[in-house]
Amino acid sequence: MFYPLLSCNQILCFPLMFPEFRRLTFYLSTHSTAKYSMWSFLPRYLYLQFSKTANAFFLFITILQQIPDVSPTGKYTTLVPLLVILVISGIKEIVEDYVSLLLVNALKNTALNNAWQMILWKEVRIDFDSISFVLFFFSEPQATCFVATSNLDGETNLKIRQALSETATMKTEKQLSNLSGKIKCEEPNFHFNSFAGTLYLNEKSPISIGPDQVLLRGTQLKNTEWILGIVVYTGFETKFMQNAVKSPLKRSKVEKVTNMQILVLFLLLLVMSLVSCVGAIYWKDRYRAEPWYIGKNYDYHSFGFDLLVFIILYHNLIPISLLVTLEIVKYIQALFINWDEDMHFKGSNVYAMARTSNLNEELGQVEYLFSDKTGTLTCNVMTFKKLFLLPYSVESSHSFFLTKLSSLHLL
After folding, report:
1. How crowded is residue 315: how many other Cβ atoms within 10 Å of its Cβ?
2. Is 4 helix (H, G, I), strand (E, B) or coil?
3. Rounded CA gap, 153 and 243, in Å?
4. TM spans, by residue (predicted)?
5. CB half-sphere exposure, 273, CA atoms < 13 A
């Protein structure tokens, strides 16, 4: 384990100095943001696909076609197209998830030996901390540093962090090499503004540690050349990850409307099948004994059997190519977004990046916008007080506005 000296220009790392920590096991400072993993891909992907009404319907038709004597068509007339749809959609999901994973892992990694080492800022990006640690000392006077916490609480003003006074004067390699002690801190939790710990250093009196001495994962170092600290939380134990929630399987409005329309088509198909079954019963009662080629001992099928047959016959009312066409169109839309020159920032040669094509049509669909006059809430609590609803517009006259005051609704 190494304790990093973070710098805007360089990183200085030194080996473990607290022998008590050698027998402890900590989380690695890594986490996965991928939508799928090697083991969860198949069940998660199949759940996502068959939660779509069309795919569930065609799976039902495929099962019916495997029943002997029920299907008037072949066993594979729906199975093969359904497999093609699943394969194409699966390839798209894998490609998008893999590209997103490559972007996340684009940061370079450097292995450090058991010694002090200098690393150029070009080799390792350190703008955003990947760990949470207790601050020992900084390059700035009064042992203070400035951090931006906009990624955590949305506030744009810089926060001050204060190093421990007992360690603020330790800046030489010899002083650091003589450090010995341990830190006892609270269990990992999701509270950004709280921290309680105690530093036991060189058999001296315990030193209290509070939130002002902790630099959390997700914060950004500002106006400070370098800092040094000791790691207390890594990986999923950081407060940043404690507040993270598992990303849900999001669905666009177009997909919801498509599912509803397919459900309406299925109800129409069911009505057509029921009408056909009634017609079949009428035909059997009227012509049961007349056709000589049927025979008197012919066993006519039941109502339920005929219903399944007609459902299979009419199932093409719902186009099986609809979903795969939508998937291909969305993927091409994502490519056009990535290639759009109007969204190209030439200063740093950065293009727009569509990380997933499932929600293209949701772009720009903003219904509500909450804001206060300063841009930052004084207190991060929004309490609903009142809502005024009034039919008033810029084109409306002042007299019209006054006459409508009587229709004011206060909720």
Report:
1. 22
2. strand
3. 11
4. 45-64, 76-95, 262-283, 303-326
5. 21
From the list 300, 309, 301, 317, the residue with the least C-alpha distance to 273 is 309
How far is residue 330 from each of residues 127, 128, 333, measured CA to CA in Å? 34, 33, 5
CB 118 within 8 A of CB 55: no
Confidence at 304, pLDDT banded by 50, 70, 90? confident
Handedness of CA 377, 382, 383, 385 (dihedral sign): positive
Angle at 157 between CA 155 and CA 159, to 5 degrees: 100
* Helix 53-65 / helix 41-50 crossing angle, nearest 10 deg: 100
- Annotated active-site residue 69? The verdict is no
Residue ranges of the domains in the chain? 3-29+130-242
Per DSSP, the residues of 131-161 read: SEEEEEEESSGGGEEEEE-HHHH---SEEEE
More confident residue, 9 or 74: 74
Q: Which of 174, 142, 172 is nearest to 160 (CA)?
A: 142
State the pTM of this model.
Answer: 0.56
String of b and e for 68-91 (b: at least 16 CB within 10 Å)? eeebeeeeebbbeebeebbeebbe
**Complete edge-to-edge strand list for the sheet that includes strand 144-148:** 158-162, 144-148, 220-222
Contacts of 215 (CB under 8 A, 6+ apart): 129, 132, 133, 135, 145, 147, 161, 221, 227, 229
Query: In Å, what is the CA distance from 212 to each residue of 145, 208, 216, 337, 376?
Result: 10, 11, 10, 43, 21
Backbone angles phi, psi at 402, to 5 degrees: -70, -40
| Separation of alpha carbons 146 and 157, rounded Å | 10
pLDDT in tens, 364-410: 777 776 665 555 555 666 677 776 666 554 444 444 444 444 444 44
User: In this structure, are residues 249 and 26 in contact, taking their beta carbons and an 8 Å threshold?
Assistant: no
Rounded Cα distance, 400 and 256, in Å: 40
Active-site position among 69, 285, 299, 372: 372
| Dist CA 158 CA 139 (whole Å) | 17
The predicted-structure confidence for 332-368, as pLDDT tens digits, reads as follows: 888 898 888 888 888 878 888 887 787 888 887 777 7
> Are 128 and 149 within 8 A, CB to CB?
no
Contact at 8 Å (CB) between 181 and 205? Answer: no
State the burial class of residue 352 (Cβ atoms within 10 Å of its Cβ: 0-12, 13-18, 19+): middle
